[in-house]
Design a protein that fits this description.
The chain is an alpha/beta fold. The protein has 5 helices and 8 strands; from the N terminus they run H-E-H-E-H-H-E-H-E-E-E-E-E.
């Protein structure tokens, strides 16, 4: 099943090449195999893998929290991380984005963030969420990190629960 999902992802990356926004969402719960699929796909399409949690955390360590609460600084850092990871607009496969749901970062919507970045290159984000109708939901209603993200504009590849 994972190889079928990887094949779907490769096809989606080829399909979006001429689109204005080249965002693809790999949707699956924690532990569903998103990381392995992204890493294998990056190799097969000549793309780049980015562990956002690790890279962004490292950049934020030297900045006082008060300087990135509005989200502007975080967006600028993400833009630079993506440019550094994929300087020639190769497909970019972004994993471990759950850091963006942290209230300390100013409630950043990762779909909106990477939609903007996907104008320049195909971007696949691994979204640790579940689908409800035409939206993805991260966390539970009432929690600080709860986010509802519309999906209707994007190619969404779901990893089914086993």
């Amino acid at each position: 099943m994972k190889s079928a999902i990887k094949g779907d992802l490769i096809n989606a990356i080829q399909t979006v090449q001429s689109d204005r926004h080249k965002l693809i969402i790999l949707l699956g719960k924690f532990g569903s195999g998103k990381t392995a699929i992204l890493k294998q796909t990056a190799v097969e399409v000549g793309g780049d893998y980015l562990n956002l949690n690790m890279e962004l955390s490292e950049k934020l360590l030297g900045i006082p929290t008060s300087q990135y609460l509005d989200g502007t600084t975080v967006h600028a850092i993400i833009d630079q991380l993506c440019e550094d990871a994929s300087p020639h607009q190769e497909p970019l496969l972004v994993d471990n984005i759950e850091i963006l749901f942290s209230p300390e970062l100013g409630k950043i919507n990762p779909v909106d963030t990477f939609k903007r970045i996907s104008r320049e290159r195909p971007v696949v984000i691994a979204l640790p969420a579940y689908r409800q109708g035409s939206s993805a939901i991260y966390s539970s209603s009432g929690h600080e990190d709860y986010v509802l993200m519309p999906l209707e504009e994007y190619i969404v590849i779901e990893i089914p629960e086993e």
